[in-house]
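Propose amino acids for all 296 sites.
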């Protein structure tokens, strides 16, 4: 009996082993190495890396250091994008899921595919598409506005249009993923609950509020956390579409980290900023989990 149990445990361990090895080599080791780099004065052109402890971290919180402005201005811009994009990613994603779910079965799969296709496109292609649409001088939308004798809109070169453009491009690119997740959650809600609600005289809105939303609450939390993390890691859209402009209004934290690492060649500072950013994301995710799961 014991031998059989030992063999079962060994077999289970072998199935987990590939994932465990990938997890160690591609996540734990890079994180550990990045933490070590953050404790050193690591110049890419200098083969000698002096150990400085937490000095790189202290410079981020030193108001007289350029790292302070670099980090907190980038963080402010990143949080702005998170605030603008995440509620829309959730609300529109759920709205599309409800609409697609209400379609006849024979065309439901077609619309799911249409909305999900942009998610399979790379960020560089997304940026090219939306630059072609939103370019101030030769963009498709501004050409139509000129043909209608209407003033053109500086989509990528003025505020708040730059943020609006980035949010629109991100929604178009990623909303399909959230929609599919919500559709799967909606399909798991027992039909008997809706039938009971209808018999009790509940309207469609009441059934949505008191049956649908509570039933998909775990999925809502998952989408909230993953959308927040993805929006916090925004880089490609502002880098390729606005170049962080106008000025530095859309220059997000990851852009500043990359500049510090590869333009200033200060990997120690960049690693410290990256780990601090990751710590902030963890705190935000934990707070979201606690708030959405508190007992009423």
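Proposal:
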């Amino acid at each position: 009996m014991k031998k059989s149990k030992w063999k079962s445990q060994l077999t289970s361990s072998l199935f987990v082993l590939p994932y465990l090895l990938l997890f160690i080599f591609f996540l734990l080791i890079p994180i550990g190495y990045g933490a070590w780099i953050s404790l050193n004065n690591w110049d890419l052109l200098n083969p000698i890396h002096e150990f400085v402890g937490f000095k790189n971290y202290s410079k981020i919180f030193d108001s007289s250091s350029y790292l302070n402005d670099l980090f907190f201005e980038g963080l402010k811009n990143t949080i702005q994008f998170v605030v603008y994009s995440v509620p829309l990613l959730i609300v529109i994603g759920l709205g599309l899921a409800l609409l697609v779910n209400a379609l006849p079965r024979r065309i439901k799969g077609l619309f799911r595919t249409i909305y999900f296709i942009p998610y399979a496109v790379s960020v560089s292609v997304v940026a090219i598409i939306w630059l072609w649409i939103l370019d101030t001088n030769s963009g498709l939308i501004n050409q139509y506005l000129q043909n209608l004798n209407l003033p053109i809109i500086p989509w990528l070169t003025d505020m708040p249009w730059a943020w609006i453009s980035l949010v629109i491009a991100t929604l178009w690119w990623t909303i399909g993923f959230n929609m599919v997740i919500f559709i799967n959650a909606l399909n798991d809600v027992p039909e008997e609950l809706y039938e009971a609600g209808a018999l009790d005289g509940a309207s469609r809105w009441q059934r949505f509020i008191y049956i649908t939303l509570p039933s998909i609450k775990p999925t809502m939390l998952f989408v909230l956390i993953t959308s927040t993390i993805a929006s916090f890691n925004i880089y490609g859209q502002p880098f390729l579409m606005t170049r962080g402009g106008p000025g530095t209004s859309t220059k997000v934290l990851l852009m500043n980290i990359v500049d510090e690492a590869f333009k200033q060649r200060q990997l120690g500072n960049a690693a410290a900023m990256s780990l601090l950013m990751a710590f902030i994301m963890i705190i935000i995710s934990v707070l979201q989990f606690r708030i959405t799961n508190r007992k009423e």
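Residues 2-38 form the longest helix (37 residues). The domain at 57-292 is CATH 1.10.3720.10 (MetI-like fold).
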